[in-house]
Amino acid sequence: MGELIFVGLGLGGVDDLSARAIRTLKECDQVYGEFYTSKLIDSTPDDLEALIGKKIIRLSRKEVEEEETVVDAAKKGKVAFVTAGDTMAATTHVDLKIRAEEEGVSTDLIHGISIFTACSSALGLQPYKFGRTVTIPFPEPGYTPLSPYENIYDNWSRGLHTLVLLDIREEEGRYMTANQAVQWLMDAEKAKGLGMITEKTIICAAARVGSRTQKVAANYPQKMLVEDMGPPLHAVVVPGKLHFIEAYALAKFAGAPEDIIED
Amino acid sequence: MGELIFVGLGLGGVDDLSARAIRTLKECDQVYGEFYTSKLIDSTPDDLEALIGKKIIRLSRKEVEEEETVVDAAKKGKVAFVTAGDTMAATTHVDLKIRAEEEGVSTDLIHGISIFTACSSALGLQPYKFGRTVTIPFPEPGYTPLSPYENIYDNWSRGLHTLVLLDIREEEGRYMTANQAVQWLMDAEKAKGLGMITEKTIICAAARVGSRTQKVAANYPQKMLVEDMGPPLHAVVVPGKLHFIEAYALAKFAGAPEDIIED
After folding, report:
1. Which domains are seen in chain B, by residue range?
2. ipTM of this complex
3. Is B236 in contact with B204 (CB distance < 8 Å)?
4. CB contact under 8 A, A127 and B89
């Protein structure tokens, strides 16, 4: 019987892969991957193919969620399923693991570096103090859900930070920018009016976290609206109550105004 | 002027280090490390020394927090500061980075795999649905803070999961076990009486996450009190509202009773 190994590729490039991950991928008969929930910053799937010496069969959302391609292959041999970031971050990865085990395929995980913690590290914010994570979707005509704002408010009112992940439409090559997210937050504030996003609210952005060109910024909304964060992927953090060291780190490393240290 | 690079070593062993991290550590003139906030599971600092071909100068909490050893060395050359997990997870790491930059030392980060996300992946729980993280300390005579219970309750009452980190007393070789944490939760429930930890509350434990001997378990408190999770490090998760796939994953991979799937 076969084996299915879920490998998180981390965030940067093939140079950030562990010896264990590379050896495992080299040993596999087939390597499948999905790059629609996230992608590597410093490398392409082609670079990974060159490193491990085999093709990566790239799957669409439909192929991961509805088809049995991966499980069928794993019944017959040693198969890997790779994703950027950590593995199992999406429900569909967990679902795939369950389906494989139910077919008698043994499974294993090789963890990868994830935006869920690397973003807080990049900004110097304490990972303990993050509440639930939120995703802002691209606006659809006639459909503007305000639940992300409400969930951020729910964290913020408790003094907790919020990691805000931004929509990815990989098929269309669209990646929401931090600027767009700041505009979304300002619009949501107008609609809900809870006083969370004011002229004096610090918003943090982190671009290409885990890559060689990682960039962080933190400032008031009007500044963040035009801050050039460069190419994707971007993420945003709405901080809650800042510890002195956190405020200091934002001022020192992310360009936040010095007066936040005194507050 | 020198350089200080903060390297997160991840959770497993030296085999889990990236090519980039190994190359960087080999290039450094000095490598400092602290292993009192966390430690590698599959390797010792000696294994790392053998891999990179130099000594790792192990620092006590006092040396990291109060002394200028690392910054002074980084003024003169290329220096690394290594920790298990991701770097910057502790306030003192951020403080060290700030002190270095203030002395004109340039700094950089190489991220590592962190318990903050690998634990949710190991259990098949969705990382989005975690509220703030909590640490349970070893009880001290005459001092039993209930704030961890209150913070877990705050997450739980909103349907959010809580990652519960367990106290490490590295100097004394004491690592809190999942069993001790479950006992702590049951005692806190008795003291506070909010109805969160009942006979029918599922508690999850994950041991040696990110290592070759990773083990997960999920069950009712009375069962988890005696579940043998093996050697440290252990972590606990008090789940909030479980999505169908999450409940399924806990039943399938962590031995939780099947009836949680129906709930």
Report:
1. 3-110 (3.40.1010.10), 115-262 (3.30.950.10)
2. 0.95
3. yes
4. yes
